[in-house]
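Try it yourself: sequence plus magnesium ion, in.
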Amino acid sequence: MTSKPAREIWEAALGELQLQVTRPNYETWLRDTVGVSAADGQFVVGVPTPFAAEWLSKRMSVVIERTLSRVLKSSVRVSFQVHRNADADGHSVPAPSSETAADARPPVPTSAASRLGRLNPRLTFASFVVGDSNRVAHAASLSVAERPGEAYNPLFMYSGVGLGKTHLQHAIGHHALSLGRKVLYVSSERFVNDFVTAVKEHADEDFRQKYRTVDVLLVDDIQFFVGKEKTQEVFFHIFNDLHNAGCQIVVTSDRHPRDLSLLEDRLTSRLVWGLAAEIYPPDYETRLAILKAKAEHMKEVIPPDILDLLARRMQRNIRDLEGALNRVVAYVRLSRLPLNLETASQALADLTMDRSRPATPEAVIQAVAAYFGMEAEALRGKRRDKRTAAARHVAMYLLKEDVARSFVEVGRLLGDRDHTTIMYGWEKIASQINTNPRMRSDVLEIRTSLAEPRLKASG
Ligand code: ADP
Ligand code: MG
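Structure, out:
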């Protein structure tokens, strides 16, 4: 069994790692990992496959050790161990023989389960919250899960990241499996990889066979096929065979098929034969409902004002929303502080202030201006109305705290103001931050908005 503290520590570390590594790397290598044990400066992370153990220890151990050391406030060494159910939502079961990265064996060849791909037990219809933003995709997913090959074929779902495409695919998979259908879920990166390997080993026929013999084929993030002509071609043939045989195909992507610029035009047109359903960012009510569901699942009682804070703060996607909730919960558990607006804000502030790459002064000025709904020029200019002055003070504070070195420099950045003016503005905000929750949340939100573009830039 994993120890509880190790799990919590790892959850907190994952929250930070999510901000430090690119999204594909996070998704592929870190998402399905668990904290196994923490003792004597050694931290063991459970991972789903020997390959993941090897990859992580070669490519990510430095950043992971740095992050863990920060969370634990003491230096640690990390090692990776294969846990058979590392992806089973934290209900981790150690593999019969524990393998470390050093003596990693190749994965056991195709047991029925592994051939069928991994479906995350957490991602079901029951745990999917329906709102206006995803209603169509959800309804379509339910129909194809109930009657594979009969309703919409293919079902194509598209959206930005973290809005539930993979969740719905897994949900379809679980449901179809429970009806005794043969299901294959595959990320398109895995599909490409397997195909390339098959070609190298002259096993393309086996490859095709594997895909042709399923009732439901789920291919995730097909945008990775862009520019890969051979892969598109082989997928086109598999697609046709399955479609002709009345088997269900479900494909997701970050954009509509017509915007995929696939080299195979024939494939583009096939992809819209069935239904192309877009998923939109969730509205406030849906975000709140999702948070409530997640909190319940975590057996956490979260006060309404904190749910509200999170739902307002994390607007863009559900993954970040979840990440923020996990982060807050892990923070209060680890620090043993009570859960309130104050500690929740602290947990989130940490997250945005923990910068691997600092913001630039210009980015800060832009972010403050955008937050207060004015032009950056206004902050550098002479206007003295209350709102502009308040925004300018916040800019002074953030420039001093987060990027610049001296009051003189900040003065120069804000339209050649005297350093005593800057000092005054800085002091004002620095003290209000401790007394005025509104001010605290303003500053926090600007910091969050500053962290986001950097995430994208690094992703
Ligand atoms: P995508 O594949 O679109 O990038 P995911 O399906 O991976 O997004 O979703 C990101 C996270 O948000 C997952 O943990 C998922 O369970 C959760 N999620 C997404 N949509 C919903 C929803 N409607 N209800 C509950 N959780 C959701
Ligand atoms: Mg996905």
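One thing you can check immediately is this: The beta strands are 34-39, 42-47, 77-82, 155-158, 183-187, 216-220, 248-253, 275-278.
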